[in-house]
Amino acid sequence: MVQRQAEEMLRKIDRDCRTTSSYTGISAFAPEVMQAMAEVPREAFVPDELKPWAYENRPLPIGNGQTISQPYIVALMTDLLHPDKDDVVLEVGAGSGYQAAVLGRLVKKLYTLEIVPTLAKNAASLLEKLGYTNIEVSRGDATKGWPEHAPYDGIIVTAAAEQIPPALIEQLKPGGRLVIPIGAPHGPQDLLLVQKDAQGHLRRKNILPVAFVPFTSDEN
């Protein structure tokens, strides 16, 4: 039953990828990204009462006003990051740990920040239970990034900010990629890809309209 649901989820991800290709320029996600999506048990990251809907291609609430992202969006953001097995990546917004679990299968090391203490604790516990040894979770204010482990080959943000926190730009390695939703809280938002070249110059590209929970910090 779960296997059939997971296979159907993958088919819908592939369908949405092709449907949105005029926005994204991507008609098929990298095979290794789809393999990671297939291997991560999404039902482990949703509340018990929502497990029957775990493999639906839509976001689901996880408590504390937060959500687990739509599988298609997780795959898209992962693909945009161009993850490599030698990469060190920063995630902003661990949430349930689902996006971290997908990325953790594709990179050397993942550091992930979560501002909600309960979510940070639960994500760390679950990822450890699932056998991840290359993911470190911390409760922290993501506007400051995680400078101790910078610079990062990639940075992924799973909440919508009105502007990119300067610390994240500073902590992105030359040649690195930053994927972040930008827009007003509960208003129009766009998924943005930022690439930093060898000289530190930035190139920005709007990917497609999205809807994310708002980015929060210790100051709001």
Describe the model.
This protein is globular. It has one domain (2-210): Vaccinia Virus protein VP39 (Rossmann fold, 3-Layer(aba) Sandwich). The strands form two sheets. A seven-stranded mixed beta sheet has the order 5-4-3-6-7-8-9. With 220 residues, it is an alpha/beta fold. It has helices at 2-19, 21-24, 31-39, 71-81, 98-104, 117-129, 166-170, and strands at residues 60-63, 66-68, 88-92, 109-114, 135-139, 152-157, 172-183, 189-196, 202-210. Helix 1 packs across helix 4 (71-81). The chain has seven helices and nine strands, in the order H-H-H-E-E-H-E-H-E-H-E-E-H-E-E-E.
Number of strands: 9
Mean pLDDT: 94
Order of helices and strands: HHHEEHEHEHEEHEEE
The CATH homologous superfamily name equals Vaccinia Virus protein VP39
Structural class: alpha/beta
The structural domain count equals 1
- Order of adjacent strands in the largest pleated sheet: 5-4-3-6-7-8-9
Radius of gyration: 16 Å
The level 1 CATH classification is: Alpha Beta
How many DSSP H or I helices? 7
User: How much helicity do the residues have?
Assistant: 25-40%
Specify the biggest β-sheet. Answer: 7 strands, mixed
**What is the molecular shape?**
globular
Beginning-to-end CA distance, first to last residue: 43 Å
**CATH fold-level name:** Rossmann fold
Strand content: 25-35%
What is the level-2 CATH architecture name?
3-Layer(aba) Sandwich
Unreliable residue runs: none
